[in-house]
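tmp note - Ribosomal RNA large subunit methyltransferase J
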Amino acid sequence: MLSYRHSFHAGNHADVLKHIVQTLIIESLKEKEKPFLYLDTHAGAGRYQLTNAHATRTGEYLEGIARLWQQEEVPELILPYLEAVGSLNTSDELRYYPGSPLLAAKLLREQDLLMLTELHPTDFPLLRTEFSRDKRVRVCREDGFGQLKSKLPPASRRGFALIDPPYELKQDYSAVVKGIVEGYKRFATGTYAIWYPVVHRQQIKRMLKELEATGIRKILQIELAVKPDSDQLGMTASGMIVINPPWKLASQMASILPWLHKTLVPEGTGHTLVEWVVPE
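out:
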């Protein structure tokens, strides 16, 4: 199945959380001069127009990035993320939102490399066009999970892999764990960030247990819920599972999340979480 289109969901609360965590990891890696690889297993189209039919049909960005966009004062830690979004919007109007690969490209340096993978027949050409003039970027139409085996370790021995499949297939949850195991065998010092949606809580609990069973250490869970868990259709929360996180990430997200939850969920429903699944 390749029916999922992120253009319907771009800029929603899940994107905001995912991209803030992504930005903090990248900013941490940039503290050393040595280059690193950014690997995006499910890259999407690269950028999304928030005024097109897909985005306006769902309006999800209005309860996501639009709420941050309206704030006069924001935590300093999220300024690089908001500045990257702002660079796509030349006026005060919020028209475009960067997917994870374009956000990474905005943040990475000249010496860093980006490896982007996408299989969707519509999104792949858009992704390839978006980065056609960026010499730091390689765009592949291949299985994203397979890149964790074939593209690691990077020559620089420094790298960050973002894994955010659509989870339109139940086996994606197990495929994430298998992909992590393959990548970790080859590149145990890399940082791996797994995005997940909370639709059925039991699926997330199973995935966490499978990750624990791998024996991998330093696994951090970060979660933002906009509603209580439910057995009804729809995503109530999303999160990031980060393996080998930068040492500051847990404290950074613990400081950001209360403000982020209050801004995105003014009614106060849901919860936030920063917790070690497996400590060092």
